[in-house]
Design goal:
Strand order of the largest sheet: 4-3-5
Shape: elongated
Largest sheet: 3 strands, parallel
Distance between the termini: 44 Å
Helix content: 40-55%
Radius of gyration: 21 Å
CATH superfamily of the largest domain: SPOUT methyltransferase, trefoil knot domain
Structural class: mainly alpha
CATH topology of the largest domain: Alpha/beta knot
CATH architecture of the largest domain: 3-Layer(aba) Sandwich
Number of helices: 10
Length: 233
């Protein structure tokens, strides 16, 4: 969800996710989640509380194979190809049998996804509705799309495990952190092996991967900044 304005809508989307077997909710620059959001999530409070918060779209979309944008605006004009869309049913048919990691982007309640973000999408989905009033509430639109993915067996049970490439990035940043904190050189090889084995045994989910990556990045960056300040003094 990109810059959601109302926590009630975030809660309602979490509830729709629970209805159709989805569990990974990512919030980009969201509003504060309060009582209304929790109330509307009903039995999906776990999804709401475990949602990952990001500041940039790039961070939110790391590790994604296909980006699916949602829009209330549709066109058949070839010159405006970035706005040519599929129905949820047609999207599910195209993705049928795929094991790809798919991100469904839901834009702000007032003006949806901006043009730059729409251009980054591999697919754009619009839900056919009454031309006199064809803009659906964000959670209602989400539920329709989630349903089509669910009945076409595109929703996998449980959160996705981090890929081998993602785990390797964790190992790389852990090594950078050891360098940044001036960890004893003679201890580094064994400590790196220990961390690698720990990650292999734990099989982290993508949510856990992104959380750990954020911690390691911030820690390494903070150490380097402190070191630069000391050098400047």
């Amino acid at each position: 969800m990109i810059e959601p304005l109302k926590d009630g809508n975030v809660g309602a989307v979490a509830r729709a996710m629970k209805n159709f077997g989805l569990s990974e909710l990512v919030l980009v620059r969201p509003c504060s989640i309060g009582e209304e959001g929790i109330k509307r999530s009903m039995h999906a409070v776990d999804i709401l509380k475990n949602a990952r918060t990001c500041f940039t779209e790039g961070e939110a979309l790391e590790g994604v194979d296909y980006i699916v944008g949602t829009s209330g605006v549709d066109t058949a004009n070839d010159k405006k190809f970035s706005r040519i869309s599929l129905t949820p049913e047609a999207l599910a048919a195209k993705l049928k049998g795929s094991d790809a990691v798919i991100a469904i982007l839901l834009g702000r309640e007032d003006f949806g996804l901006d043009n730059d973000l729409v251009k980054r999408c591999d697919f754009l989905v619009t839900i056919p509705a009454n031309p006199e009033y064809n803009i659906l509430n964000i959670s209602h639109a989400a539920a329709v799309i989630f349903y089509e993915l669910f009945v076409n067996d595109l929703v996998k049970d449980g959160p996705r495990e981090a890929s081998g490439l993602e785990v390797e990035r964790l190992n790389d940043y852990f090594a950078k952190l050891l360098d940044a904190i001036d960890y004893p050189e003679h201890k580094k090889p064994k400590t790196k092996v220990m961390f690698r084995r720990l990650m292999a045994r734990s099989t982290p989910t993508t949510w856990e991967y992104h959380t750990l990556m954020g911690v390691l990045k911030d820690a390494a960056k903070g150490c380097l900044q402190n070191e630069n300040k000391k050098d400047a003094e």
